[in-house]
């Protein structure tokens, strides 16, 4: 049975367990399997009227909703290859994807959302039919059985976020998804154990991302109801309404939660702050094996008085969290563990059907991304790059044979990630091979760990990027307006743990924040390093020019040398 057949079977046989629930303000609005099937029937009728043929591409544009999920299922059930698009992405970037995919049909949540994208696409898009959700769900429902995909058929093309260069369409087959869903189902059941009822699962990450889509299809395959955010600006209230047992995160969200909690406790002050600080320090000593009897008392007091209140604010029913998209800092992972909220990391790429490894609850190591899923083969190249072979490896990049040949060599997918890995153990992601910085010293430096250390040492720094490729030394680009003294103290603390060639020697201050909207972050909030360097090239050049003048002045006869 294919993943799609399983989902439709669950919709019919277990309608309450295959429920989709939208969190709207302070209320929950659910649609059970029967309602979903009716909506799928309506959407399929509209899609067939539009003349879709099996194998045609269907672009899907909109934010998470029951109707988005139904549109996805309906397009698949009609034999279409779904191309999900991120509704917050710049229309010009989306138009690039449409020019590549050449869909015959665009399903958009609203006409207003589709209009700028179609305008950016231009004359090439005149052959594409556009249906907004209002039109999509108007016809009387059809009761046809879902299209049967062969194992090698492409079911979706997901465009990568494009941290370097033009986005590429990752082709995933039915076989890719059929391999992945049972793996994720088994790992979730291993974590949650046996329950008398369904899990309370909340989801806010866009379904257009591979890992997010796997979470959706996993819950519908188990089956288990899924609660969805409908307003990311109202996330705190939605979380309070949903009261989830767990949900999928990205590190940026978890870092913000940690920083926000710390700021609130500092603001309140008093006895709670004193207990908190002593308990946190005691927890650190306990992990390091240096705790005293009094540290044990301080930690126990924190667990009784402060930690439960903090956990209640984050999520009263939270049993664990899942973090993906990028490595989570070890300190933040331990911080949540301290509160009694384990964070399980997942690692993967769109090209690996979203996942390569997942934390095993009995073998979690903070700062690492879990054990590889069974059925794959992993190895590390001489350069430290992770290579993966297995049924989860994508079919190739849509209409890009040269890029495909570069990515998959002798059956091995080259992830581009620099890792530390011993067979049978947890994976640790060091950084991206292409992100390595090589200053004039000739040393190769992975920027991600240093950036992570600075944001941990100085929580006021919420965005930063290491620069210095081909320069005399490395510096850090910092956005926003964090206090200069705090940043300098953070850098001093970070440098104390680094060899000389990795030390941060200066700060490049940038007023403009890095966002998805201004094109400096990818759709899943990763740094677009090349674009950022281009945007702030003037500031970076000015910093290094001034630094060179300062050094020249210090090197003159009669001057003290640095």
Care to describe what's here?
- There is one protein chain.
- This protein is α/β, with parallel strands linked by helices.
- Among the domains are: 3-138 and 149-245, Rossmann fold; 436-555, ANL, C-terminal domain (GMP Synthetase, Chain A, domain 3, 2-Layer Sandwich).
- 41% of the residues lie in helices and 19% in strands.
- A hairpin with a 2-residue loop joins strand 1 and strand 2 (27-31).
- The model is unreliable at 558-562 (pLDDT under 50).
- CA-to-CA gap between the ends? 69 Å
CATH architecture of the domain at 3-138 and 149-245: 3-Layer(aba) Sandwich
**In CATH's first tier, which class of the domain at 3-138 and 149-245 applies?**
Alpha Beta
Number of E-type strands: 24
Structural category: alpha/beta
What topology, given as strand order, has the largest sheet? 2-1-10-9-11-12-13-14-15
Q: Tell me the quaternary state.
A: single chain
Radius of gyration: 25 Å
Attribute tags:
alpha/beta; Rossmann fold; 9-stranded mixed beta sheet; 5-stranded antiparallel beta sheet; 24 strands; disordered C terminus
Briefly, what is this?
By secondary structure, this protein is of the alpha/beta class.
Question: How are the SSEs placed, and which strands pair?
Answer:
Layout: H1 3-13, E1 20-24, E2 27-31, H2 33-49, E3 57-61, H3 66-77, E4 81-85, H4 91-101, E5 105-108, H5 111-121, E6 129-132, H6 133-136, E7 154-159, E8 169-173, H7 174-192, E9 201-203, H8 210-221, E10 226-229, H9 235-242, E11 246-249, H10 251-268, H11 270-288, H12 293-305, H13 307-314, E12 321-323, H14 330-338, E13 343-347, E14 357-358, E15 371-372, E16 377-380, E17 385-389, E18 396-397, H15 401-407, E19 408-409, E20 412-420, E21 428-432, H16 447-457, E22 464-467, E23 474-479, H17 484-495, E24 504-510, H18 529-535, H19 537-555
Parallel strand pairs: 1-10, 3-4, 3-5, 5-6, 9-10, 9-11, 11-12, 12-13, 23-24
Antiparallel strand pairs: 1-2, 7-8, 8-18, 13-14, 14-15, 16-17, 17-20, 19-20, 20-21, 22-23
Helix pairs in contact: 1-2, 2-3, 4-5, 7-8, 11-12, 16-17
């Amino acid at each position: 049975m294919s993943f799609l057949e399983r989902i439709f079977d669950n919709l019919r046989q277990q309608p309450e367990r295959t429920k989709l629930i939208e969190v709207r303000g302070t209320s929950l609005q659910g649609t059970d399997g029967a309602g979903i099937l009716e909506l799928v029937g309506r959407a399929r009728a509209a899609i067939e009227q539009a003349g879709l043929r099996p194998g045609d591409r269907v672009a899907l544009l909109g934010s998470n909703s029951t109707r988005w999920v139904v549109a996805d299922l309906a397009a698949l059930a009609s034999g279409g290859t779904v191309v999900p698009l991120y509704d917050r992405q710049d229309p010009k970037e989306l138009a690039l994807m449409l020019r590549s995919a050449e869909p015959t049909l665009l399903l958009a949540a609203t006409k207003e959302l589709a209009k700028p994208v179609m305008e950016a696409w231009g004359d090439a898009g005149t052959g594409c039919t556009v249906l907004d959700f209002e039109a999509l769900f108007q016809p009387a429902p059809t009761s046809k059985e879902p299209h049967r995909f062969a194992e090698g058929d492409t079911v979706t093309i997901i465009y990568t976020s494009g941290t370097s260069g033009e986005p590429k369409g990752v082709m995933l087959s039915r076989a890719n998804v059929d391999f992945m869903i049972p793996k994720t189902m088994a790992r979730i059941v291993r974590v949650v154990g046996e329950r008398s009822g369904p899990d309370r699962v909340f989801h806010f990450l866009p379904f257009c991302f591979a890992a997010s889509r796997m979470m959706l299809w996993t819950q519908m395959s188990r089956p288990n109801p899924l609660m969805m955010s409908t307003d990311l600006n109202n996330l705190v209230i939605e979380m309070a309404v949903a009261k989830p047992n767990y949900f999928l995160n990205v590190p940026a969200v978890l870092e913000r939660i940690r920083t926000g909690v710390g700021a609130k406790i500092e603001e309140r002050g008093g006895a709670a702050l004193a207990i908190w600080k002593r308990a946190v320090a005691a927890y650190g000593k306990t992990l390091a094996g240096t705790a005293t009897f009094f540290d044990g008392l301080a930690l126990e007091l924190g667990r009784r008085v402060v930690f439960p209140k903090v956990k209640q604010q984050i999520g009263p029913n939270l049993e664990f969290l899942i973090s993906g998209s990028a490595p989570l800092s070890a300190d933040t992972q331990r911080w949540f563990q301290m509160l009694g909220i384990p964070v399980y990391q997942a690692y993967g790429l769109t090209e690996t059907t979203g996942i390569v490894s997942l934390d095993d609850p009995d073998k979690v190591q903070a700062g690492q991304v879990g054990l590889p899923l069974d059925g794959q083969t992993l190895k590390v190249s001489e350069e430290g790059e992770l290579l993966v072979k297995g049924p989860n490896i994508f079919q190739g990049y849509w209409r890009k044979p040269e890029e495909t040949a570069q990515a998959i060599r002798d059956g091995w997918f080259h992830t581009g990630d620099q890792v530390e890995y011993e067979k049978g153990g947890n994976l640790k992601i060091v950084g991206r091979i292409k992100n390595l910085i090589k200053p004039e010293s000739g040393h190769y430096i992975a920027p991600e760990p240093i950036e992570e250390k600075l944001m941990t040492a100085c929580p006021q720094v919420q965005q930063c990027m290491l620069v210095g490729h081909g320069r005399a030394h490395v510096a850090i680009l910092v956005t926003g307006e964090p206090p200069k003294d705090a940043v300098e103290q953070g850098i001093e603390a970070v440098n104390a743990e680094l060899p000389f060639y990795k030390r941060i020697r200066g700060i490049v201050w940038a007023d403009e924040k890095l966002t998805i909207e201004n094109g400096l972050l990818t759709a899943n909030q990763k740094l677009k390093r090349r674009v950022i360097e281009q945007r702030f090239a003037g500031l970076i050049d000015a910093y290094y020019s001034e630094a060179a003048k300062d050094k020249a002045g210090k090197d003159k006869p009669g001057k003290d040398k640095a």
